[in-house]
From TrEMBL:
Spans annotated as Disordered: 213-251
Residue ranges that the Swiss-Prot or TrEMBL entry lists as coiled coil: none
Recorded topology in the membrane: Multi-pass membrane protein
Organism: Vanderwaltozyma polyspora (strain ATCC 22028 / DSM 70294 / BCRC 21397 / CBS 2163 / NBRC 10782 / NRRL Y-8283 / UCD 57-17) (Kluyveromyces polysporus)
Composition-biased stretches (Polar residues): 226-239
Transmembrane segments: 12-31, 43-66, 72-96
Taxonomic lineage of the native organism: Eukaryota, Fungi, Dikarya, Ascomycota, Saccharomycotina
UniProt keyword annotations, A-Z: Membrane, Transmembrane, Transmembrane helix
Protein name per UniProt: MARVEL domain-containing protein
Length: 251
C-alpha cells in the first residue's frame, strides 16, 4: 500500500530552500564584487554556506529522482543536520557583521596603516569603510543592502532546514528504526522494500516492507516464530489416546 503523504507540501519547502540558497549565494557574490573583492572575510562564510547548500539541494533533488531506492536514511539525516548547522553559523555571523557596521562609512582623525596609505588618509579625510577596510569616499550602499537581503534569506533557510531535518527524522528515520533498528539507517531502500519520495527525500513513498517484527538482529523474531510453529506441530503428535485403547492393548 502506497503512503498517502502528498508531494506538494514537501516540494514547496524544497523549492523555497533552493531559491533561498540561490539568493544568498548571488547577493553575497554581488556585494563582494561591488566591494571590489575587498569584503569582510567573515561575510564570505555566508557565501560558502550558500554554495554548499545549493550543491546539496541539487544532489538531493536529482538523486531522489533518479535513485529513490537508495534511501540511506542515516546519511540523509546527517547531511541535513550539517547544512542546518552551517546556516545557523552563517546567519549569525553575517547578521552580526551587517548589524555592527550599519552600512555606513566611518571617519577617524587618527591614521591607521591597515586602511591604506597616508596619502589615501589625507585624500578621503580619514573616511574608511569597515567592510573593505580601505580609506574611501564610497558608501557601497548597494553592496551593503545586498548583504542585508542575503541575511534575511539566510535566516529563512535556517528555519527551513530545521523543518526538513525534523521531517527526515520523523518520516524517514523513525519508520526504518522501528523496523530494523539502528542498522537500518545505512541500508538501501531496495533491501527494506521502500523508497524515498522523489524530488524531496522528506518522507518514504512506500512503507517499510512487512516482515516479522524487529528484535535484535532483525531476524530473531522470525526464527522464534518458526520455532513456536515447529513446537506446536510436534505437540499435535502426542494427543491423548481415546478411552479403552490401553485396555485393548493389554488384552
Amino acid at each position: 500500500m502506497a503512503m498517502s503523504k502528498s508531494i506538494l507540501p514537501f516540494s514547496i519547502i524544497r523549492f523555497f530552500q533552493f531559491a533561498s540558497a540561490t539568493l544568498v549565494m548571488s547577493l553575497i557574490a554581488f556585494a563582494t564584487r561591488d566591494f571590489h573583492h575587498h569584503s569582510n572575510p567573515k561575510i564570505n562564510l555566508g557565501l560558502s554556506v550558500g554554495v554548499i547548500s545549493e550543491f546539496y539541494m541539487l544532489c538531493v533533488m536529482i538523486g531522489t529522482l533518479l535513485f529513490p531506492s537508495l534511501v540511506f536514511a542515516g546519511l540523509l539525516f546527517i547531511s541535513e543536520a550539517i547544512v542546518m548547522c552551517l546556516y545557523i553559523s552563517g546567519f549569525i555571523t553575517v547578521a552580526y557583521q551587517v548589524g555592527k557596521h550599519h552600512c555606513r562609512d566611518r571617519v577617524t582623525d587618527t591614521y591607521n596603516p591597515k586602511y591604506g596609505s597616508l596619502a589615501d588618509f589625507n585624500e578621503y579625510g580619514g573616511r574608511y569603510n569597515e567592510f573593505t577596510n580601505k580609506y574611501t569616499d564610497k558608501s557601497f550602499g548597494r553592496a551593503c543592502n545586498s548583504l542585508k537581503a542575503a541575511t534575511a534569506f539566510a535566516g529563512l533557510n535556517t528555519v527551513l532546514f530545521m523543518v526538513t531535518c525534523t521531517l527526515v527524522g520523523i518520516n524517514v528515520m523513525r519508520p526504518i528504526t522501528n523496523k530494523y533498528g539502528m542498522s537500518g539507517l545505512f541500508k538501501t531502500g531496495s533491501s527494506m522494500g521502500t523508497k524515498l519520495q522523489r524530488f524531496t527525500g522528506l518522507t518514504l513513498s512506500e512503507p517499510v516492507g512487512d516482515s516479522y517484527g524487529y528484535s535484535g538482529s532483525g531476524m530473531q523474531d522470525a526464527e522464534q516464530g518458526n520455532a513456536y510453529s515447529t513446537a506446536d506441530s510436534s505437540n499435535n503428535n502426542y494427543q491423548e489416546k481415546p478411552a479403552g485403547t490401553e485396555g485393548n492393548t493389554t488384552a
